[in-house]
Amino acid sequence: MLNIVLFGPPGSGKGTQSELIVKKYGLLHLSTGDLLRKHLGKGTDLGKLAQKYMDQGNLVPDAVVIKMVEDRIATELTAKGFIFDGFPRTVNQAKALDQMLSDYDLSITTMLSLEVEFSELRTRLRERGKTSGRKDDQDDAKIENRIKVYNQETIPVAKYYKHQQKYVSIKGVGSIESIFQLITYELDGLK
Ligand code: ADP
């Protein structure tokens, strides 16, 4: 299995690049943001719990997100591999992911980190807010909070994968296609 962590700050293009990776490599896209938004939309108990965190741009508690990912992996074991998008976002989540994969004799193959400057991220998120309907994209204070949370809680995850020699930096600025080319170069080199 080819199991990728697609890492990067909010607005770095993880969702966009995931779609292209899915098309070319046939992997299963597991986006915790998308899964959580589905719960919100359906009004499940999990969705009600998650909403207050998401609306403010804070992280949903680890236990909730980890359980959600565990359940999804368990039902998709026949997949060619996974792209984890927006997960892990804390070191605790990264450790839990390693543990749950190892239970199935699996592991993360590589971590691709999309590098985009914060000034560019702010512009992209505000633009997305005009059409996405996402409350967390429509308010500067919430955008700033997400960047702050990213710096405090998520950046350490990069170090975690650096220690495992799985960290690959990808310049996340340029055309969608040119960024995807950098990604395919890395992934094709793994074979
Ligand atoms: P973005 O990366 O653009 O901020 P996401 O769709 O990945 O958007 O996530 C939206 C929100 O969902 C986050 O701000 C957070 O509240 C919640 N969320 C998503 N993934 C996680 C996670 N792994 N751990 C905790 N909260 C998460």
Summarize the model shown:
Helix content is 60%, strand content 12%. By secondary structure, it is α/β, with parallel strands linked by helices.
Features of the shown structure:
191 residues, binds adenosine-5'-diphosphate, globular, five-stranded parallel beta sheet, 5 strands, 8 helices, alpha/beta, 12% strand
If you had to describe this structure to a student in words, what would you say it looks like?
A 5-stranded parallel sheet has the order 2-3-1-4-5. The termini are close together. α1 crosses α8, α4 runs parallel beside α5 and α6 packs across α7 (140-163). It has 8 helices and 5 strands; from the N terminus they run βαβαααβαβααβα. With 191 residues, the chain is an alpha/beta fold. The structure holds adenosine-5'-diphosphate (ADP).
Task: Summarize the topology.
Elements: E1 4-7, H1 14-25, E2 28-31, H2 32-42, H3 45-56, H4 62-75, E3 82-85, H5 91-103, E4 110-115, H6 118-132, H7 140-163, E5 167-171, H8 176-189
Parallel strand pairs: 1-3, 1-4, 2-3, 4-5
The structure holds adenosine-5'-diphosphate.
Adenosine-5'-diphosphate is lined by residues 10-11, 32-33, 36, 53-54, 57-60, 65, 86-87, 89, 93, 136, 146.
Q: Count the DSSP helices.
A: 8
In which order are the strands of the major sheet placed?
Answer: 2-3-1-4-5
Determine the N-to-C terminus distance.
11 Å
The unique ligands bound to this protein are: adenosine-5'-diphosphate
Average pLDDT across residues? Answer: 96
Sheet with most strands: 5 strands, parallel
β-strand percent reads 5-15%
Q: Which stretches are low in confidence, meaning pLDDT under 50 for 5 or more residues running?
A: none
Percent helix among the residues? 55-70%
